[in-house]
Amino acid sequence: xxxxxxxxxxxxxxxxxxxxxxxxxxxxxxxxxxxxxxxxxxxxxxxxxxxxxxxxxxxxxxxxxxxxxxxxxxxxxxxxxxxxxxxxxxxxxxxxxxxxxxxxxxxxxxxxxxxxxxxxxxxxxxxxxxxxxxxxxxxxxxxxxxxxxxxxxxxxxxxxxxxxxxxxxxxxxxxxxxxxxxxxxxxxxxxxxxxxxxxxxxxxxxxxxxxxxxxxxxxxxxxxxxxxxxxxxxxxxxxxxxxxxxxxxxxxxxxxxxxxxxxxxxxxxxxxxxxxxxxxxxxxxxxxxxxxxxxxxxxxxxxxxxxxxxxxxxxxxxxxxxxxxxxxxxxxxxxxxxxxxxxxxxxxxxxxxxxxxxxxxxxxxxxxxxxxxxxxxxxxx
Amino acid sequence: xxxxxxxxxxxxxxxxxxxxxxxxxxxxxxxxxxxxxxxxxxxxxxxxxxxxxxxxxxxxxxxxxxxxxxxxxxxxxxxxxxxxxxxxxxxxxxxxxxxxxxxxxxxxxxxxxxxxxxxxxxxxxxxxxxxxxxxxxxxxxxxxxxxxxxxxxxxxxxxxxxxxxxxxxxxxxxxxxxxxxxxxxxxxxxxxxxxxxxxxxxxxxxxxxxxxxxxxxxxxxxxxxxxxxxxxxxxxxxxxxxxxxxxxxxxxxxxxxxxxxxxxxxxxxxxxxxxxxxxxxxxxxxxxxxxxxxxxxxxxxxxxxxxxxxxxxxxxxxxxxxxxxxxxxxxxxxxxxxxxxxxxxxxxxxxxxxxxxxxxxxxxxxxxxxxxxxxxxxxxxxxxxxxxxxxxxxxxxxxxxxxxxxxxxxxxxxxxxxxxxxxxxxxxxxxxxxxxxxxxxxxxxxxxxxxxxxxxxxxxxxxxxxxxxxxxxxxxxxxxxxxxxxxxxxxxxxxxxxxxxxxxxxxxxxxxxxxxxxxxxxxxxxxx
Lengths: 381, 528
What we know:
- The structure holds two protein chains of two kinds.
- Helix content of chain A is 45%, strand content 14%.
- By secondary structure, chain A is α+β, with helices and mostly antiparallel strands.
- In chain A, helix 6 (99-119) crosses helix 16 (347-360) and helix 7 (121-134) packs across helix 8 (144-158).
- In chain A, 39% of the residues are buried.
- The model of chain A has no long low-confidence stretch (mean pLDDT 88).
- Chain B is of the alpha+beta class.
- Chain B is 49% helix and 11% strand.
- In chain B, the strands form four sheets. Chain B has a five-stranded mixed beta sheet, covered by helices on one side. In chain B, strands 1, 5, 7 and 8 form a four-stranded mixed beta sheet that branches.
- The longest helix of chain B is centred in the N-terminal third of the chain and has 23 residues, at 3-25.
- The model of chain B is unreliable at 76-86 (pLDDT under 50).
- Chain A binds chain B through residues 3-6, 8-11, 28-29, 32-33, 35-38, 41, 60-63, 65-66, 68-70, 72-73, 213, 216, 236, 240, 242, 245, 248, 253, 256-259, 262, 265-266, 269, and chain B through 97-98, 100-101, 103-105, 111, 115, 119, 157-159, 161-163, 176, 179-180, 182, 186-187, 189-192, 214-217, 219-220, 223-224, 227, 328-329, 359-364, 384, 387.
């Protein structure tokens, strides 16, 4: 039952919203708004059933005048639907699963992660070793363990089993007022006491992107943020962590930059460079992995997932859909059906693979500096 | 009902029963006693009955009966001040709702303690462990929370937030923008954020005080404040109070007579020192004006001269100690203007301002200065558009179908125009650096500098009341170089037009006037 102040007394909080698709010109403002607690709770209030502004205000213990501008913004940008005169329904995908469902998913993901570790990682390990020797790479301290962390996570992300998944999800994209055409999703953070460490498996994005004009900065970044990596969450924070400056640094282009000092400070604060242990105090070492080839070419060098995973994947997808579908509101069920496909490549599995490998000693613990840039690859054309 | 179900059911109603008791007695201790009596009677009834069709109504009836007996007994023994009135079941729910509403306005710790105790049914010792507090502290917070609930219970909250009109009419940054390329308007895109900053501009307040003032639950106020604090727009002060760290200015009505007076002084004392003939030797050499149009060139050079030379006090030095570091690496001073109903220039808020846009010179050795005013009819001025113009002027955009989009863009923006069978750049281009071009211009005379300082002082005094006490020094620093104010420079151009020193612009010149693109070479002339 919706009660006065329900969401003001116990507000919910999302993980950083994630986007699939194309960003519009007002993306910064949109992302900033969706990170606000008030906006998140407005979206949550009308997720399962349409509500009027007054009903939402009541749940939030505030006046309708306070939330009208938020709702107006959300409706104009397609994050809420104004389904009748004064009835609003949330139009982003929220993963808000029960304790029981989360516990069951944990078991499923852990089982798949174990299969990947047993049947895929050995081949990946060998190829990773070979590539470590043969490719033109920048690797801090030439640390094979650090390289392996990123290669394994990258392979688990990119060696897709369902090739046309993006096209299937694309049908659910929403056109934004600013020209964006995308899908937004987030996970509602839980305060349950699970039998496993829930926070450990929360991923804050698996994405690759370019920045600015390609002729100025011909590189591509792939990164995967997890509990193991220590860097700010969110797409904007990732995109503006100082990668152009890192590119300039790698190519010795910072010397004539009038903002050189600011650039160095940004690179240091984002952990992309670190002060050199030796030599003089003005020397810095690169603290990120760069590969001198394209993302796709690198992906092609990695071994494919075993064929037997195809059937397992289909079975898992169906199982997860049956397990969780009732926890999504009617307007989101079709989307969820597509969204829960490709379990083997999901973030829930990837992080558990890293965890298992760490337990087995295949991967070694990371240093503080490495946590800033782990599971991140810079592809230089 | 078996004991297990009775235990679970009674647990769900503990909070409701306490709320009922508190609203009846308005006394914490008595409410606890009454709540305990009601709970006991309800529990006994649960154990006796197997099926209860309307649980809410059933409990409400027992609660009302116990309360009546309680009042008759208590009035004999001690003084209390219950609100004796006939209540209905809907009143009961309304009172509970009201109590829930008030919980949202408690401070973070008080709210957590109340929620953990009455909603999550944790014991005091469990709360102490969960929140890492001592038992005594938890009890104290619980006591304070109940007091707050009682005190605020009868308050009617009205929100000050009016969503129809944003509070800030203009948001301005001075200094360096960070890597995200965003300014103050990013952080204050909502009226909600603007109202928070405004409420703590003149006086520091706690989040609870702000919440009460704006009638927005504390948890949402705290979230917003966190965002603004970590970006330096709000400071946290002793006593968990917050205060706005930027100026919020009510624009004083523009004094047209004063603008005209100083525009005339500038025209007479400074513009007269600039000899247009002295630039003839540079045109076609280090300076480019479309079709060698001297009039078009003079528009830009006079405005540029006023923009650079009338700022005779070094702003970088004056403002350095007030620069605030933003999360994205930006270091700047932000200030906002609010509308007091007297400002009639709402449509012109992006006019009469300068901008210089540049990029890493190793990547693109081009930057440009621009002044926007009512004289121009620009359609966008993003760096990438000018980068395309730069590529065009270097001959890097072939006249081939593959590049039709580039040409269309430049034509649309008025940055190239047709000349015969070819196209030419349609803005002033300079192969000297901005500093070198500035050096070709005369400095302003000392007599004008003295008048400029007097103007700064006059304007500061006029605006002094706008600046919060803790921001008076910043306010004074922001008022320097008033002589270079955009509206005065516009009036200078109007003077020059009246005097016939510059002539009206052609339509296509209005798209690119008052712009100088600085780069490594002048446009290559194409011969078809």
